[in-house]
Amino acid sequence: MSTNPNPGNPVDTGSHPSGQKLINLIRGWPSPSLLAADLLLQSATTALTDPSIYVPGLQYGPDPGYGPLREQLSQWLSEKYAVKPDVERICVTGGASQSIACILQGFTDPVYTRAAWVVAPMYFLAGPIFEDSGFYGTDGRLRGFGEDEEGPDVKELEREIQKMEQQKGADEPTFKHPAPQRKIYRHVIYVVPTCANPSGVTMSLSRRHALVNLARKYNALIISDDVYDFLQWPVTTTPSTSPVPFIKPLPRLTDLDLPLGRSSHDPQDKHFGHAVSNGTFSKLIGPGVRTGWVEAAPNLAYGLSQTGSTRSGGAPSQLVAAMITQLLKSHDVDTHVSTKVRPALQRRHARIVQSIESELGQFSISVRSEGEIGGGVAGGYFVWLTLPDGMSGKEVSERAREEENLVVAEGEMFEVRGDERSPRFPSNLRLCFSWEEEGDVVEGVRRLGRVVKRMKENKGERREGRFGNGDMSGNDISYK
Ligand SMILES: Cc1ncc(COP(=O)(O)O)c(C=O)c1O
């Protein structure tokens, strides 16, 4: 039996010159203590011993996903978001990342779709998903736009869309042959409205309305990564180990869009809507389950289920979908999240915020401790720091690795690759508090404080070390 409390984390005490063990504040994974292995064991046993579950579970599944999971999801989500349950709005996916790829495959066109617009700083692993569908920053088809205290800067986005529309003129014909069950959108907008990765910002209600209106005006599809909606907690300086109840998230963009009915860009006989909610069990049960859902207008959910690879291979995650169905029925997912996941994240968040104040406050480094300013609620996995006096985030991150065996993410990772016009983050850092246990989160910030202090004291001096090029790919550091 391993004695390492965090067995996914390499412990390299001997190999680092500082003699300290590795602390990894890049990795955006749940720590092993948050994985729902015990619950999955029970539901797997049930699923694999009952032929009425395992026969469909082990076969090719229906295109929109395992029926009982869709039923459970529509009920569960209707309670969470206070909307009417509608199973036709649900399509089971292989998690949020796979789902973005399928949405882009089905609902965008390499010629007709002018650009994908992403909030910068962006969830950097979404970048390659857009590139796979031909949206490159270097070609002006993956475009970053800014955010402020309230979320995406919708006015800036509209200005930029208008400029693009004027430059490009009339509609180009589509390169793809339009399928009746799909619709090709002219723009895509990608956002993480609740506790964004990496900035932690939660989009205000008025901004949500404004974004939906803009999407409807310019024939855009909003892909809304709602992956942190259920991971919110009250901000407190004295967190306990008691369960942390669910906090109702702000309305999803799809739920603001749907009641507005068909837009002028919808075809005569169909309502595809202008927003898709992209959900996942990765952060609730464990990323390895590779199961998520889309909730959208029924026509869009169905169109997504008609992705070629889904029609051939069946819905993704069919067997795991059958297991998760048991966990939703028994309310075990909710219990796990409220008794384990949210309390642990709430405590780690409180400790990281306190440590940042005590270790970094003296250098004028502050942290946003709430999703919406004044809302009293925090969530997600990350905090976003701005360094003082233009200090380089890249240098801090390299020196942290060299001198303290600490891994943090520099702001440049969250820029939109190849889009020279979009916001830059040379003086930012993202710290993740989901992977390391509480004590190591605090120790990590302490080490960061030492790095910043040394950099302040000997300005300009730079020691080249073995990790000097910032490329950590060979060092067993994987991250999200
Ligand atoms: C905003 C965002 N979207 C998607 C993902 C990945 O989701 P999934 O595991 O469901 O593919 C992450 C994981 O860090 C994320 O932060």
TrEMBL record:
GO molecular function list: 2-aminoadipate transaminase activity; pyridoxal phosphate binding
Pfam family, one: Aminotran_1_2
Domain Aminotransferase class I/classII large, chain residue ranges per copy: 58-434
Region Disordered: start-end pairs: 459-480
InterPro entries attached to this UniProt entry: Aminotransferase_I/II_large, PyrdxlP-dep_Trfase, PyrdxlP-dep_Trfase_major, PyrdxlP-dep_Trfase_small
Signal peptide location: none
UniProt-listed PANTHER family: AMINOTRANSFERASE (PTHR42858), LD15494P (PTHR42858:SF1)
Protein name: Aminotransferase class I/classII large domain-containing protein
Species, as recorded: Coniochaeta pulveracea
